[in-house]
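Feature request, filed as a ticket because there's no other form

It would be nice if the structure record came with a short human-readable summary line next to the tokens. Right now we just get the raw output. Example of a typical job, pasted below so the devs can see what we mean:
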Amino acid sequence: MAAVDAPAAAPAPPHGFMRFLGGIERAGNRLPHPFWLFWVLFAVTAVASWGMAEGSLGVADPGTGKHVAVRTVLTVNGAREFLSSVEQNFVTFGPLGTVTIVMLGVAVAERTGLFEALAVKSLSRVSAKYVVLAVALAGALSKFLSDSAYIILIPLGAIAFQTVGRSPVLGMIVAFVSINAAGDANPLIAPGDAAFAAMATEAAQTVSPHASVRPTDNMYFTTVSAIVLALVITYVTEKVLARREHTLLPDDAEAAVESARPAPGPREVRALKLTGLAALAYWGLVTLAVLPRNSPLRAPDGAIVESPLFDNIAVFLALFFLVIGFVYGRLTGAIGSNHDVPAFMADGLRSIAPLLVIFFAVSQFVALFKWTNIGTYVAVRGADVIRDAGAPTLVLFALLIAAVACMNLLITSGQALWALVAPVLVPMLMLLHISPATTMALYRIADSCTNSITPMSTTFMLTVGFIQTRKKRAGIGTLVSCTLPVALSMLVVWTVLFFVWWLLGIPLGPGAPVR
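Raw output as currently delivered:
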């Protein structure tokens, strides 16, 4: 793939919008790397805690009724106490263990070529009638690929569209917006779900020490959302973007379809079929193991939802990907010996090393925020203000979605932004009798839909680079002008879907009521 060059001139949207976009870009460029951003927030929190402690601010703990005072780390005793917990803060940071464990299995499946073969097999040959829907669904299901989803599915989206006589540039755009904006609407449990749940649990325990949020707590909602958003992407593409498709033709419109990746051969196809059987066998065995009432995968009282299976779903996901990756790798020859498996795992951990570095900064910020009791103070006071204002619950939800969506234009990392807002939003809404699972669902809506319209995102610029391999004069304006109507449509439809879900009282996931 060609390197991302400076975006060339493109037909510009209205000047007012371009000025707004330029302001967002300049503001975002002034933000430091997330690692430094959280250290800045750490410093701000430390100073704020000193001022609040000097003012003797405090509230009644909603769980125990005891007075909780804001305390500061900027004293000899405070600094000594916090420094003694720095290592523990990092080691016990929930997402660290969850992401690391899941990645051990995902790495084997990814590096054997299983994910790529599935993507190629699914998207390389689709009919013209369903090409947009197929690419949109593939994007919504691609979160297991992590950032490699963009590298695999965007070129495949171009191939799928060009094969049926449509603009490959439009195929890239549909793939990008599907991965980037619909990724949080996933009917399957991805590593990101486990990380989100772990952070929500830490935040919820500031109000209720025994609170627990599971990766499956939004499963029902995200499953329906994936289908709805894929239909929204398809509708907007056909009704709006298709009218501009003539402006998205590649520089060489007569060029033959590029063979970026060959279709799986007979050996790979056979391996995929047998791997599918292995996947069914794995979950079949898990199901059989859960059936006995005294199964170790159940809780002592026989419950399934509140059980070791669901509470430790990351372990079972890691084993699942390890099994299917190993089966596929052995059948295709990608795994020549047992020594390859730990090597793939090591490669997988190296690929998430930047995330682990950020986690160190995030873990210290989260720990300080919790240690100072600022989160409890803000949550209780915020809940009091909202309760006194008497704002309808759905109005509150709409305001929260809008606020987080705007923040997401500048802080494009979903996990980083969740780590920032969860310590405030989760406890605050819990005090208003709104469950952490509901707060997490609201965050998914706000976080996903604006990812595809901000140049602050590295994947946005990566996509611009992909598009420029087909259409050199395309630039930021080209991509934003196409993703904006899709993103806004998804934001509106997804919000309405949640409101209907809330009013009907449908559970968000197994054992996770919406209210």
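Something like this underneath would help us a lot:
Residues 299 and 307 are 4 Å apart (CA to CA).
The first helix runs from residue 15 to 30.
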